[in-house]
Design goal:
Layout (H helix, E strand, L loop, with lengths): L30 H11 L19 H13 L14 E2 L12 E2 L2 E3 L5 E4 L3 E5 L3 E2 L3 E8 L5 E6 L17 E5 L4 E4 L1 E4 L9 E7 L4 E6 L2 E8 L10 E7 L3 E5 L15 E2 L5 H18 L1 E4 L4 E4 L11 H17 L3 H15 L11 H12 L2 H20 L8 H14 L2 H10 L6 H5 L17 H33 L11 H16 L12 H25 L33 H7 L1 H8 L1 E3 L1 H18 L24 H12 L1 E6 L8 E6 L8 H5 L23 H48 L5 H31 L3 H22 L11 H15 L13 H15 L8 H14 L3 H9 L2 H11 L8 H12 L34 H13 L1 H34 L8 H27 L2 H4 L6 H20 L4 H8 L9 H16 L4 H12 L5 H8 L31 H8 L21 E4 L4 E2 L1 H8 L14 E4 L7
Parallel strand pairs: 7-17
Antiparallel strand pairs: 1-6, 2-5, 3-4, 4-16, 5-15, 7-12, 7-16, 8-9, 8-15, 9-10, 10-11, 12-13, 13-14, 18-19, 20-21, 21-22, 23-24, 23-25
Helix pairs in contact: 2-4, 3-4, 3-5, 5-7, 7-8, 7-9, 8-11, 9-12, 11-13, 11-20, 12-19, 13-19, 16-17, 19-20, 19-22, 21-22, 21-23, 23-24, 23-25, 24-27, 26-28, 27-30, 29-30, 29-32, 29-33, 30-34, 32-34, 32-36
GO molecular function: ubiquitin protein ligase activity; zinc ion binding
EC number: 2.3.2.27
Main location: cytoplasm
């Protein structure tokens, strides 16, 4: 028997000796005073009468057992059980019929009362039916999606499309669509929300079915339902994928019994036990409020709130008799919720802090002293689950009084050390109750502010309501933080392991369960709860961190918090099977074992490396070297795992993690031999405080400190692992949930616009058109109700998710990740051990701060904002091409993040603020050849650095799309141009200095342009053919998207060429460079191909553009022709020797057509009307900052094409396409360079005289010619 202070009293073997035998040893008061006390605590029942001789005699402890049994026997009245009540058939314990009464795939809780849909439309019924009388059951709605709740008969047959209410003998209420169902459907009731309680009432005497929502009747839904012989109704539900509810058939007290007092629950309440429990609780209250004055020999009334266990034998023995009967009753969920929880809540009703009510601590001491361990364990478990249900499904009142009340009681219970440790070990974080408790409850239909007629007053009223709501929620959040602080207490070591280490191990297991997408949904924490959980946990961690800073001034503050790199490679923290930057952990241990020994003093046992290698070979044989599942999770050691984790790949990681023997050595002096310490990776549940915090000569979690890491205390090591878990938790689901909530704000805006538009239409509607006016007014009402509903929901979201405080939490997490990445990067090759999610969280948290919290909270107001932007820019610039990172997904994410980063002025300036060496390295990586890497993203980055400087390239949106509304104005591609002259200058320097890199880069750009434009032309041919087919008048959406992407890539590649030739024209025009002429000819060929395809009369491009297909909005003449024009302008103007050479190359290309240039300039259509001139031309462009002053056709011709060949004698006699540009030695025959270069690749003889060619010189026609 467990005890806490004093003597252990075993209830089962308890036997008290007579007073005469031990009058002094027991310390019990005299016989008369004892009798008075016991008669006061256990008064005779009124049924026995005051003159009963049996109760006038002296009452002692010897008689107390029989006396108490007799009192309690009076409560054994005949219960109105279902056996005596006609009208109900089935087991006494009513649950969901998981064996035969279901359709589809569902997850049912262990108690057979909760259910989650896991298929399209699943249905399930209860095990009990009713055929006569009035009956009720309650449904606790956990999600607000598509569900139909009600009654059905045994004859109803459901499928994946039809559920409860879709067959003749089934009836249902659907709060999602606000309708009732019985084959047909009509409007009924109100919309429900997560946290609501639906009551389903059936009156088989009157033949009616009624539904209630949160205790308020929605009216009779169905009347004259089928009754009579052979007809009985089962409770039933149909629900769609991932929707969840919990049933209460009477196993727990009904939440709103007073609204339907004449209706019976399907499961009869334990009336006898309930009466006994209340009677025993009354005796307990009397003991607490009565003290014995031994000096005056009288009983004294006292305040029960100050009662304490003081070892008084009289009181303890009295309590032992009470608990002999009370303890078994407290193992039943109905009695715990109805009796014990209400009693404990009444103790806190006086208000004040929880510390002002020590009685709850004393009562819990009493529970552990006088109850068996299994009884107190079950009692605490049921008590906490009852508190969770009450918190989740309580009505929202203006001051959140119910929620605060339940949280205060939870805090009071968790202040009791032994109870807290039991709950942490056995209840919290199992099935996510902690996350449920830390979620602020908000229901959409609650009123936060009163609307007024005037818009301005309405807005002000809404803002005041939001402010009041935020203040209420802050009180709730503070209580939740107190709960977490109690769980993170690491000083309560009096009864075993401290709470923090129990919490830490359970928290790690919680993360493992939620890190897999293939886990059972019943054990996964909903993401909306995860968001609230992470904010409370961050607050609790920072408070403990700063307390440690005050006690140890040499450590760092929470503002500078980071996770040291040792955690990633020393095996002390289990990262399951999450991907590392350098690949699998087993691979890294083998390939980087020398680096671990040199930099971190960690030596891997060669035998273990060989064992992991054999595992790799076995796995390759079994799986064919299949790639590791990215979402899988594994845990090493003896920890039991679900069957779905037993894959060969995960088994390999487990075997390595659980068996790897790691030798660590702590250097004493530089020349002294290292002292080796053998350690073994432990499973999470096997770790102790010493394994985490370390002890004499043992660094715990920080074993293996690299030389680059400063030798400075950070904080308590357990907090470091919890912080690491917080980062992982944000990556799992928090960021995704933050993005989902933004949709509500967008919906509010859309409905507000629709409502305003409808009101304007009503004002303009003619009075004679009453039919139109009526429809408009109906629409106005719908829009107003929906807007009101969404506005209230938005108020909750802004207060609980997007507030300033929550923004600071996410910002702190961003800075933690940045510092962690910087410290890990300094370790060199060991950076590969870092889990990928740190980089993901750094990128995603910045995205959340920029996109999700505005405009109510501005990121620019955050402390150290510019410095943080610069640090993140340095990370993106360095690691997007880091060879230590091997994962394709994370490399793509880094590239996309950098591409988005350079689209916004502030973040682009941050990139410009990083050290010049890093900027040059970034540009060098961007200018690497495009082959064998994601070149499209690289190209977008270069384009965005140029946008705003190119010819006609200062637009935010394409001119022909200006009249349309963009889907999302916050997209990076829709931001105003913000070119970077600094980075352009770096690009010019690199291309000028490194001729080989410049040639390979431009060759790859030209290759990709050739591919992209060819693919685009092929795609529009297919689209045109599909559009012209009479039997098929639609085009595949994916095909349109690919076509638009190829066009956008072609334009962007042209812009990169424009950028290059503007910054470094000598690459193409200085023919002393080895590859200049070849590059220029390739460029001319591609430009002519583009012009010919786009400018041909009635060509394919025109026809597809004129179709105006959705998805091809960006395909137009303007963007591609302006890009080509920008290149032409740069290579041909101003007139010079180089520009004349370029013009000669352009004109000598076989694909050149003068008509294309005329089309571009608007010539050749002089006879056409303005209506016919639908194509783009420079002639019709308005002069301005977006264009160069070259719109006059004559000036263009004079400047651009002064050297057009006019005589056939000037053309190459071989191809008759290019001008003569080369003369052979020694025979002096002539041709174009293209022909002679191609000829000399295979033959050294002259075309004409067959003489051996010894050299080729440039040829220029003499002026006299």
């Amino acid at each position: 028997m467990s005890s806490k202070g004093g003597t252990a009293l075993s209830r089962r073997s308890y036997r008290l000796a007579s007073d005469a035998e031990n009058p002094k040893v027991t310390g019990i008061v005299n016989e008369k005073l004892l009798s008075d006390y016991l008669q006061h605590v256990f008064p005779a029942s009124s049924k026995q009468g005051p003159a009963s001789a049996a109760y006038r005699k002296t009452l002692t402890f010897q008689d107390l057992g029989a006396h108490l049994e007799k009192l309690l026997a009076e409560d054994n009245v005949t219960e109105d059980s279902r056996d005596q009540i006609e009208g109900c058939l089935g087991p006494l314990t009513v649950v969901l019929d998981h064996s035969s009464g279901f359709e589809g795939l569902l997850f049912v809780d262990d108690d057979l009362l909760g259910v989650i849909g896991h298929s399209n439309f699943s249905s399930i019924r209860a095990t009990t039916c009713v055929y006569k009388g009035k009956w009720v059951y309650e449904v606790l709605v956990s999600s607000q999606g598509l569900m139909q709740i009600g009654w059905c008969t045994l004859n109803c047959r459901f499928n994946q499309e039809e559920g409860v209410g879709d067959t003749p003998d089934s009836y249902a209420y659907d709060g999602n669509r606000v309708r009732k169902w019985n084959v047909t459907t009509t409007n009924y009731g109100k919309s429900w929300a997560a946290g609501d309680i639906v009551s389903c009432l059936i009156d088989l005497d009157e033949g009616t079915i009624t539904f209630c929502l949160n205790g308020q009747s929605l009216g009779v839904a169905f009347s004259n339902i089928k009754t009579g012989p052979g007809v009985a109704y089962f409770p039933a539900i149909s629900l769609s994928f991932k929707e969840s509810v919990a049933f209460n058939f009477g196993s727990r007290p009904l939440r709103y019994p007073y609204f339907y007092a004449c209706y019976l629950p399907l499961q009869s309440p334990p009336t006898t036990d309930l009466t006994k429990a209340n009677r025993l609780l009354g005796y307990l209250k009397t003991v607490l409020s009565t003290s014995i004055d031994t000096q005056e020999e009288k009983l004294v009334e006292r305040d029960s709130g100050t009662w304490q266990i003081q070892g008084d034998p009289t009181i303890l023995v009295t309590l032992a008799h009470i608990f002999n009967h009370f303890a078994p009753l407290m193992c039943k969920v109905y009695l715990v919720e109805d009796v014990l929880m209400n009693f404990l809540l009444s103790i806190l009703e006086g208000g004040g802090s929880v510390d002002e009510h020590p009685l709850i601590q004393q009562l819990l001491d009493l529970f552990w002293l006088l109850m068996e361990d299994h009884e107190v364990n079950e009692c605490l478990k049921q008590l906490m689950m009852s508190l969770l249900r009450a918190y989740r499904f309580s009505p929202i009142i203006p001051d959140l009084g119910f929620q605060i009340h339940y949280l205060r009681l939870t805090t009071a219970i968790l202040r009791h050390e032994k109870s807290r440790k039991y709950l942490l070990s056995n209840t919290w974080l199992n099935n996510s109750p902690l996350s449920l408790l830390t979620c602020i409850q908000g229901k959409d239909e609650r009123d936060t502010c009163e609307e007024t007629a005037e818009e301005r007053l309405r807005r002000r009223a809404y803002e005041r309501g939001c402010h009041r709501l935020k203040k209420r929620i802050e009180v709730v959040e503070e209580l939740q933080v107190q709960i977490l602080r109690l769980m993170l207490n690491n000083k309560d070591k009096g009864t075993g392991e401290a709470s923090r280490y129990i919490f830490l191990n359970k928290f790690r297991k919680f993360l493992q369960e939620n890190a897999s997408n293939r886990g059972n949904p019943t054990v996964l924490c909903p993401p909306e709860y995860m968001v609230c959980f992470i904010h409370r946990l961050i607050t609790a961690i920072r408070s403990y961190w700063d307390e440690g800073k005050r006690k140890s001034p040499g450590s760092i503050s929470s503002e500078d918090a980071y996770v040291p790199p040792q955690l990633f490679y020393n095996g002390k923290v289990d990262y399951f099977d999450l991907q590392r930057l350098g690949g699998l952990l087993s691979h890294l241990k083998k390939t980087l074992k020398d680096d671990l020994a040199a930099k971190a003093n960690i030596i891997i046992d060669p035998a273990e490396i060989q064992a992991s290698s054999m595992d790799d070979l076995d796995e390759d044989e079994e799986t064919g070297a299949a790639q590791r599942p990215s979402g899988a999770v594994a845990m090493g050691g003896a920890l039991a795992r679900p069957s779905w984790l037993s894959s060969p790949t995960l088994g390999r990681a487990n075997r390595f993690l659980s068996t790897a023997a790691v030798s660590l050595m702590t250097p004493r002096r530089p020349l002294a031999p290292p002292e080796k310490v053998k350690v073994r990776t432990l499973a999470v549940e096997q770790r102790t405080e010493e394994d985490i915090e370390g002890s004499h000569g043992n660094d715990g979690l920080l074993l293996g400190r690299p030389l680059e890491e400063p030798d400075q205390p950070i904080t308590e090591k357990s907090l470091l692992e919890i912080l690491d878990g917080v980062v992982m938790m944000y990556n799992l689901s928090v960021h995704q949930q933050l993005g989902k909530m933004v949709v509500v704000s967008d919906d509010v805006h859309e409905y507000a616009v629709a409502l305003k538009d409808t009101e304007e239409k009503i004002a303009r509607c003619p009075s004679r058109r009453l039919d139109i006016l009526e429809e408009l007014q109906k629409s106005q009402k719908v829009f107003a109700e929906k807007l009101n509903h969404l506005s209230r929901r938005l108020a909750w979201i802004n207060a609980t998710i997007y507030s300033k405080e929550k923004m600071l939490d996410v910002y702190w997490l961003l800075r933690v990740c940045i510092r962690t990445i910087e410290h890990s990067d300094s370790t060199g090759s060991l950076f590969a051990f870092m889990p990928e999610f740190y980089l993901n969280v750094a990128m995603n948290s910045y995205s959340a701060l920029k996109n999700y919290f505005s405009p109510s909270n501005c990121m620019e107001e955050l402390p150290g904002y510019e410095e943080t932007l610069t640090q993140l820019a340095a990370i993106l610039a360095k690691h997007f091409a880091d060879p230590r990172i091997v994962g394709t997904d994370i490399k793509d994410s880094l590239m996309q993040a950098l591409a988005s980063y350079v689209c916004y002025p502030q973040s682009l300036r941050a990139v410009e603020r990083i050290p010049e060496e890093q900027r040059m390295a970034m540009m060098r990586n961007l200018l690497a050849p495009y082959e064998q890497r994601p070149w499209a993203q690289t190209n977008w980055i270069l384009v965005r650095l140029w946008r705003g400087c190119g010819f006609g390239y200062r637009y935010t949106r394409l001119p022909h799309l200006l009249k349309t509304k963009p889907e999302d104005a916050n997209l990076p591609s829709l931001q105003k141009p913000c070119p970077s002259l600094l980075l352009q200058r770096h690009m010019a320097e690199l291309l000028s200095q490194d001729k080989d890199m410049a040639a390979s880069f431009l060759n790859s750009v030209l290759n990709q342009l050739n591919w992209a434009f060819s693919e685009f032309i092929g795609m529009i041919q297919e689209i045109q053919q599909a559009a012209e087919r009479p039997e098929r008048n639609f085009v595949d959406t994916r095909q349109l998207k690919v076509c638009a992407t190829c066009f956008d890539l072609s334009v962007s590649l042209l812009r990169v060429l424009e950028m290059t030739i503007t910054l470094v024209p000598e690459i193409f025009l200085d023919w002393t460079r080895p590859s200049a002429e070849l590059l220029l000819r390739r460029l001319a060929q591609l430009l002519n191909q583009v012009l010919n395809r786009v400018t041909a009369e009635r060509n394919l491009f025109d026809r597809v553009v004129n179709l105006r297909l959705p998805g091809l909005e960006s395909v137009d003449h303007y963007p591609i022709l302006v890009a080509v024009t920008g290149i032409l302008v740069r290579i041909l103007l101003p007139a010079s020797r180089r520009s004349k050479r370029a013009a000669s190359v352009l004109l000598s290309d076989p694909c050149f057509q003068l008509r294309s240039i005329q089309y571009l300039l608007g010539e050749g259509d002089a006879g056409a009307t303005s209506a016919d001139q639908k194509h783009f031309s420079l002639h019709t462009c308005k002069p301005g900052p977006n264009t160069y002053p070259l719109t006059h056709p004559t000036a263009v011709r004079q400047n651009v094409f002064p050297s057009q060949p006019t005589s056939e004698d000037d053309l190459c006699p071989i191809c008759y396409a290019h001008s003569i540009s080369a003369i052979f030695k020694p025979c002096s025959h002539k041709s174009c360079k293209a022909c002679i270069n191609q000829h000399l690749m295979n033959n050294k003889d002259c075309f004409f005289c067959k003489a051996t060619i010894t050299g080729v010189d440039d040829y220029t026609k003499p002026a006299s010619s």
